[in-house]
Amino acid sequence: MKHLIILGDGMSDHPIARFGGKTPLQQASTPNLDRLAREGRCGRLVTIPDGFAPGSEVANTAILGYDLNEVYEGRGPLEAASIGYEMGPGDMAMRCNIVSLGRGGEICAHHGGHLTTEEGAELICYLDRHLGSERVKFIPGIQYRHLLIIKGGNKNIECAPPHDHPGEQWRELLVSPVAESGETNVENSRMTAEETAALLNDLILRSQELLAYHPLNQRHREQGRMEANSIWPWSPGYRPNMLTLQQMYPQIRTGAVITAVDLIRGIGHYAGLRSIVVEGATGLADTNYEGKTAAALEALRSDDFVFLHLEATDEAGHDGDVDLKVKAIEYLDSRVVGPIMQELASWNEQVCIALLPDHATPVEKRIHMAEPVPFVIHTPGAEPDSVDRYDEESCASGCYGLLRLSEFMDRFMNPENQ
């Protein structure tokens, strides 16, 4: 049996008064998600281990069966892997957003006003020319999501994810050192946490000076658009030590990941999954759903395991746009899940499908929340439970009850444990 995970990032939410107390999942028209629930077996899943922040890098890694206490090294190293940067033993990698700061000192947007990939590359390469050095390297990624490498950097620092602090004062969120773990320096070349924090804060301030006069921001001012006027580095780490999924689950001989998000591609890299790039995949509600669906079906013809990740619901949650979130859920239903189920019905090969978010991103809070998420596992031949809708409330009564972390992957990969 082959296995497909369809993940709607941040899809879970809270009741909305305007919808009469329904969540966006309950409000949306989702006949195909509901069919999966009706024919499958449901439950809720804890995706964030105790002591970890509810980031997508944490939740997606946990969903794939990894123990975060053993493998977690932050978001930066995953994104480095996704763009082909091979980290050295002394490197520290960080996710580096280009953000929008307001004149009152607040964080207006974690995405720089939804930069295109070309705009983001133009800005980050400009910063690398002016701020880069033997120790500091800026590397372009996708849209506003970029990579910062600090050679000899120390990961024992506290950094605020910008999407978790909309409207807050950025100066109060600058990088600060935390207590050292007692780790041994690599060839005695690693900076202290204090030195690393000071370097990063200096880069933030200098980036603001440079970006203020960049032609792209001058055009944005003239057009009344948000300015992409600062970098914001966060989630530092060293190269992780992860087993591949093939080593963890003998049922998986080959696998693939399909996503528009660098960090998911990086998780896939360390998990031993080949990355499939789909033209027009943006990570937003305008992504190429049909292309990603076709890529997933094509991959299932040759691979044992496919991880199909869609980001649009999370971005809508961060933007506080409830109508867009409902629309993104309906696109996932009609343009991804529906066509996949229709196509697989004609196959002789059996495919087990799982559907879930990695975490909640409630539109009224605009941040990730560490709370159980609804999931369904649709296994050919397995007797369904009594759940007939896919949403946060309905799945709570499913036969799986409440699972934690790697228990999901154990049930998914081993039907006899269902």
Short description:
The chain has 418 residues and is α/β, with parallel strands linked by helices. The protein has helices at 24-27, 31-39, 56-63, 68-71, 75-82, 117-131, 193-211, 215-223, 245-248, 262-270, 289-302, 312-319, 322-344, 392-395, 407-413, and strands spanning 2-8, 41-46, 91-101, 107-109, 136-142, 145-151, 157-158, 176-177, 230-237, 255-258, 274-276, 305-310, 351-356, 373-378, 402-404.
Task: Note down, in words, how this protein is organized.
This protein has helices at residues 24-27, 31-39, 56-63, 68-71, 75-82, 117-131, 193-211, 215-223, 245-248, 262-270, 289-302, 312-319, 322-344, 392-395, 407-413, and strands spanning 2-8, 41-46, 91-101, 107-109, 136-142, 145-151, 157-158, 176-177, 230-237, 255-258, 274-276, 305-310, 351-356, 373-378, 402-404. The longest helix is centred in the C-terminal third of the chain and has 23 residues, at 322-344. With 418 residues, it is of the alpha/beta class. It starts with a strand and ends in a 5-residue tail after the last helix. Helix 5 (75-82) packs across helix 10 (262-270) and helix 12 (312-319) packs antiparallel against helix 13. The strands form three sheets. Strands 11-10-12-1-13-14-2-15 form an eight-stranded mixed β-sheet, with helices on both faces. Strands 3, 4, 5, 6 and 9 form a five-stranded antiparallel β-sheet that branches. The model has no long low-confidence stretch (mean pLDDT 94).
